[in-house]
Design brief:
heterotrimer, A mainly alpha (168), B mainly alpha (334), C mainly alpha (484), C: mainly alpha, 19 helices
Chain lengths: 168, 334, 484
């Protein structure tokens, strides 16, 4: 049952990602991404990570993609200009390298996991999804990364204003 | 496992049916009450007091011709109404209507599910809800439609932020994201009567109205300037779906406000007997629905730039300050 | 395991710089007036305060925030390099921005925020912190690169942003694989895990993780073949930002590169040093050969910065404490000479006309003797000619390489260094021995007190490190010993 759900969600995620790549219409591409985001959220849910599931829905599928769709609609980009489909040696090399890289990142998964194991029992998985456990972790051992992330967001904000505001 | 599945399916079907019924009769309430406010009768031809009007409307929706204008984006045009109504229906999954009762020796809880992040789940769905409206206007390839969608998108994104921030103070006081626990924590004293929490209550109502695009924030479909906005090109059942989504949103907003601030199924100050819990909850929901109609009959529509300015420059700062004040009050003083 | 007050001590310098950045932002918002130059001095004051708090960290290693941030000599040494970079950049920028009519507080705030990110990278002992700090630094730099909003500036920003985002993806994926292989991303735990499980050195997952981390860091230090963005970005960005990028980002990226590879992955040194050997050679050679062909000084300096990354990579290949300390001295020297050189490039330009082509430099050596002298010192130092800082840096790195038996790499490195003399000296020759044209492109220098001060400071730094480097070298050696 869980496995079937996983494959359904994963399949939709992959299809959505392909849609992003193959659709000529930017809105369709964006919606493909939304589909991917939502199905990733489902995958998180299947892993008992309820909090991440909701945040994924809220932040990525909702807010971020909402803004992207909004901007595409605002600029009224109807159709991406067809890229030149002429043959170029650079393209062959590029595709070859990309293929090679794809194989290279798959190789690690042929090996057995060597990391420290254990600890991820059913009951531990229950805990991971709970907001309380997560916030204990976030404000306990992971306090520093949490705070750095807030600086990161501030930098992004200042940077965006600097680049985009009409008159500083 | 199997009986769990069966129980869930039955609950889903029942809740769905009841919700659809409520949606239908909310339109009736709206038309009746608005009529009274405007000193006219409202629907009164179909059935006694026009009570069969919603059903007649529903039938009409099914049998009308489904017009698809040329030059639309076929796929998205058909998808948009569904995208609009699905999140509205999914929200109901986590709303607790009542406590629990025993039937044939089984304890049955009066909710479809209780996940520990229920409140965030609702916010997440609110984020998805805007796609239907946005895409509907865009796909129908109509200037007014596109303008309506753009306005909706901007408005929803802006108010969603204030909405989420407002909720933080409620979460802080209740100490939980589960709607059931939030309701249970209000036995005896509703949240709205707790110190300071009337501020987020008012903020939440305002943001909620903007989020579901109701007057005075119904900019997306301003008839006078946009000729109905995003759903201008829609007809028959597709239009009806947008319409239903709108009222489903209104009902779920009322249910949420009831859970978060008005104590859910709890009577004020006294313990609630089990059989009264569902009626109490529904009474509150319909009181709020009545309020939504009432304010629609009272307030004029805001201008678009006023809406945006109000959202960012007034609501957002108040919502942020609210967190600080509530946090300080409940940790330091109380 | 949780937060303790003592941890704040390790974070004190970062907090001070961050607070200064916020103060600058507030001052920008609430202070009227067009002239915002004083904000640069506010920033410098903040950095100085942070610098006063730093020496306390110089000592045996203390880990804070559940082992995520180190207070040790290694971090402290890098903090000082970064302070030097920060102060010099702020000094150089002030006059430049005013002349380009682009004087805003956001610029100084972004420089300081980038500095916070860099410092966190130097102190990080957890891959998650490394990543977040790297992003903080990078995003600030993306914005700074596009700060002038001219077509080229925005192009630089966008190129850097897109490729940088890509590189971050590689880095993150590498971290994920390392987590899969080791079950931890704390640098010292990873080291211990590699020690406890020798079979890990042949695990494809661990090796792929190390490879992807190499790509991620290689991009940030501009190593060949991940360098393609460098010339366009360095040339298109405002010159002061280029100086900041070339020195600060490089120092920060190498600090994390060092700690991650030399400490965490020391068990797999055999495996990764081979790859880096090739990268180092490619980087040096390609950087130098392409630099020879350039006729634009700013672009030439961009390629030279690639070449310098190559020399630094030699130190990483060697991987001994001696090599690490050599790299630290080199990075300090590079900060002085590179910012100094860019300061001179700024002075030669004027509003709306950057004058970065080599022809513009004809004859300015005699017309502006002080500028000529400064530029000559920096060029000599870049070329690695004694008695300048550049020589000491290269000497130490190659010495460490020879000690470990990397003879071929050393020989090729020295040959490269010799080739680089050609294009550095060409600048000096153009300045002094080419007659200036009848209508010189440069009719005056844009120089203010702050830029002059920056150049003098950089020059003094270069000569000090070149003539009496003993103290600094000893400090660097001590610092490495504390790295653990």
């Amino acid at each position: 049952m869980m496995l079937a759900m996983f494959f359904l969600a994963a399949g939709v995620a992959v299809l959505g990602a392909l849609g992003v790549l193959l659709c000529r219409n930017p809105i369709h591409s964006a919606l493909g991404l939304v589909a991917t985001m939502v199905s990733l959220a489902v995958v998180y849910l299947l892993h008992h990570a309820e909090f991440i599931f909701v945040i994924q829905l809220m932040v990525y599928a909702g807010a971020v993609m909402g803004l992207i769709v909004f901007v595409i609609m605002l600029l009224d980009i109807r159709r991406e200009e067809a890229a030149s489909s002429r043959f170029a040696p650079g393209k062959v090399v590029g595709v070859g390298l990309a293929g090679l890289f794809f194989v290279a990142i798959l190789v690690p998964f042929t090996s057995r996991l060597t990391g420290r194991m254990g600890g991820m029992t059913e009951s531990a998985l229950e805990r991971i999804g709970s907001v309380q456990y997560l916030s204990d972790q976030l404000f306990g051992p992971y306090l520093l990364p949490f705070e750095i992330a807030s600086i990161l967001l501030l930098v992004g904000l200042v940077g965006a204003v600097t680049l985009a505001k009409k008159k500083l | 496992m199997l009986d769990f599945v069966i129980e869930s399916v039955i609950k889903v079907v029942v809740v769905f049916a009841v919700l659809m019924l409520f949606v239908a009769y909310t339109t009736w309430i709206e038309r009746k009450v608005l009529g009274r406010i405007q000193v006219r009768h409202g629907p009164n031809r179909v059935g006694p007091f026009g009570l069969l009007q919603p059903i007649a409307d529903g039938l009409k929706g099914f049998f009308k011709e489904d017009i698809i204008p040329s030059n639309t984006d076929r796929l998205l045009y058909a998808l948009a109404p569904a995208l609009s109504i699905i999140p509205a229906l999914l929200v109901v999954a986590v709303i607790p209507f009542g406590d629990q009762f025993t039937l044939f020796g089984r304890t049955i809880t009066m909710r479809i599910t209780d996940i520990n992040v229920g409140l965030l789940y609702i916010l997440g769905l609110a984020g998805l809800g805007e796609y239907g409206v946005m895409l509907g206007g865009w796909a129908s390839n109509n200037r007014y439609g596109l303008l309506g969608s753009l306005r909706t998108a901007a408005q929803m994104i802006s108010y969603e932020l204030a909405l989420g921030i407002t909720l933080i103070s409620v979460i802080m006081v209740s100490g939980s994201l589960s709607l059931v626990e939030i309701v249970e924590a209000q036995a005896g004293l509703w949240n709205v009567f707790k110190p300071i929490l009337w501020v987020p209550f008012i903020l939440y109502i305002i943001c909620g109205l903007a989020e579901i695009n109701r007057t005075p924030f119904d900019m997306p479909e301003a008839e006078s300037e946009l000729a109905c906005g995003f759903n201008i090109e829609y007809s028959s059942m597709k239009f009806a779906m947008f319409f239903m989504a709108e009222y489903a949103h209104a009902i779920s907003l009322a249910a949420l406000i009831t859970c978060l601030f008005l104590g859910g199924w709890n009577l004020p100050f006294v313990a609630t007997p089990g059989f009264l819990k569902l009626p109490v909850f529904l009474a509150k929901v319909f009181a709020l629905v009545f309020f939504f109609v009432w304010e629609r009959g009272t307030f004029p529509r805001l201008r678009y730039d006023q809406i945006m300015r109000f959202g960012w420059k007034v609501l957002m700062p108040i919502a942020l300050a609210n967190i600080v004040v509530v946090g300080l009050y409940y940790t330091v003083i109380a | 395991m949780n937060f303790q007050m003592a941890d704040l001590q390790l974070l004190a310098p970062h907090i001070v710089v961050l607070a200064t950045a916020l103060l600058v932002l507030l001052a920008e918002a609430f202070c009227k007036g067009e002239r915002k130059g004083y904000l640069a001095y506010l920033g410098i004051a903040g950095i100085v305060v942070a610098a006063l708090l730093t020496p306390r960290l110089f000592g045996p290693q203390r880990l804070g925030f559940s082992g995520m941030l180190a207070g040790d000599g290694f971090a402290a040494f890098f903090y000082f390099i970064l302070y030097a970079v920060g102060i010099l950049t702020l000094l150089v920028s002030q006059n430049y921005l005013r002349d380009e009519r682009f004087e805003h507080g956001e610029y100084y705030a972004l420089v300081l925020l980038a500095l916070v990110g860099m410092m966190l990278m130097a102190g990080a002992t957890h891959l998650m912190v490394v990543f977040l700090a790297l992003e903080t630094m990078s995003i600030a730099i993306y914005a700074l690169a596009g700060y002038f909003r001219t077509e080229r500036s925005v192009e630089a920003s966008l190129k850097y942003f897109i490729l940088g985002g890509f590189a971050s993806g590689f880095l993150l994926y590498g971290i994920a694989l390392i987590y899969g292989a080791c079950g931890t991303t704390q640098i010292y735990d990873v080291m211990a895990y590699f020690k406890a499980l020798p079979a890990l050195t042949s695990s494809p997952m661990a090796l792929a993780g190390i490879g992807l981390l190499t790509v991620g860091f290689g991009f940030k230090v501009a190593a060949v073949p991940f360098h393609a963005w460098t010339p366009d970005v360095y040339q298109g960005a405002p010159t002061s930002v280029t100086a900041f990028m070339a020195t600060g980002v490089k120092a920060a990226a190498f600090s994390a590169f060092l700690r991650v590879f030399v400490v965490a992955f020391q068990g797999t040194h055999v495996e990764w040093s081979g790859v880096l050997w090739v990268l180092a050679l490619l980087t040096m050679t390609l950087g130098n050969l392409t630099a020879i062909a350039q006729t634009d000084v700013k672009r030439m300096l961009a390629y030279s910065s690639i070449a310098h990354a190559g020399y630094l990579l030699v130190g990483l290949v060697v991987g001994t404490p001696e090599a690490s300390s050599a790299m630290m001295v080199y990075l300090l020297a590079y900060a002085f000479m590179n910012i100094g050189a860019f300061a001179c490039v700024i002075m030669v330009g004027r509003y709306g006309q950057e004058n970065t082509s080599l022809d513009a430099y004809a004859g300015i050596g005699f017309r502006f003797p002080a500028l000529g002298l400064a530029m000559a010192v920096f060029m000599f130092s870049m070329a690695g000619i004694p008695p300048t800082a550049g020589f000491i840096g290269k000497f130490l790195i190659f010495k460490a390489a020879v000690h470990e038996g990397y003879y071929w790499l050393t020989i090729l490195g020295v040959l490269n260094s010799a080739a680089s003399v050609y294009y550095y000296l060409r600048v000096i020759i153009t300045m002094y021995f080419k007659p200036s044209p009848d209508e010189p492109a440069v009719d005056g220098l844009r120089v203010g007190p702050s830029a002059a001060l920056a150049t003098v400071l950089a020059g003094v730094g270069v000569l000090y490190l070149g003539i009496i480097p003993g103290g600094i070298i000893k400090l660097a050696e001590q610092a490495v010993r504390f790295m653990g």
